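Memo to structure team: turn this sequence into structure tokens by end of day. - J.P.
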Amino acid sequence: MNIQADLTPPLPAGRWALFLDIDGTLLEHAAHPDAVSVSEELRVLLQTIERRLDGALAFITGRSIAAVDHLFDPLKLRIAGLYGLEHRLLPDGPIEAADEPADMAALADEIELELASQAVYVERKGPVLAVHTRAAPHLLARATKLVEQALDRLPKGYRVIAGNAGVELMPLEAAKGAAIRRFLQLDPFTGRRPVFLGDDTSDENGFETVNAAGGISIRVKPQGETAARFAIEDVAGAIAWLEAAFAEPAAQASSRNLVA
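Reply from structure team:
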């Protein structure tokens, strides 16, 4: 994908369903996932967009639903957490949760013993294990090797995804594209064209799903090849585009910072 400025037409009028990654898309990354915060302006923006889309807005995130609810409190939205291993299909509905398998817990203990004292944060998310190296980028290769070696010791059905500043181990069924497809089969998403904003390797599956559905895929701060058909330069640009496209009175009227 060649990134050029100001070449994308305005978001056309239509019935849209909006799917949003969180970290790196709506919020700047931090060395520790708990170090981020949500502004009241962002909460109000998301609430406004959800209302304008008649509820067809959902988070699609690697965070657990409990972590997202804590971060955005008191706002609650429809959400797929842990890359689709957890779901809440209604803002006030029950959570379909996922537990931590014993083999994953043992592996997390081992990696923590080796790396946690070196500014690496090992995040245990039920059946998903994330090793964050943003505060120690020189250890990314070591963390990736440890996680890849663990595949031979785990039951079949796991995969490794290397990101911009860390590596994750997760079940094969953990896929943002599958989570998006599930929402698109339910009200109020059914019959709408999907838009998905993400920023990392784990979002690529979601971009492919949205492309196949005739929607709009957008990668924030793109690095290298991506399946996304459009790009936005940074988090501030993503929020400005969302506000212009979905929240302003003349909704669907701008594509500020969106490039092909």
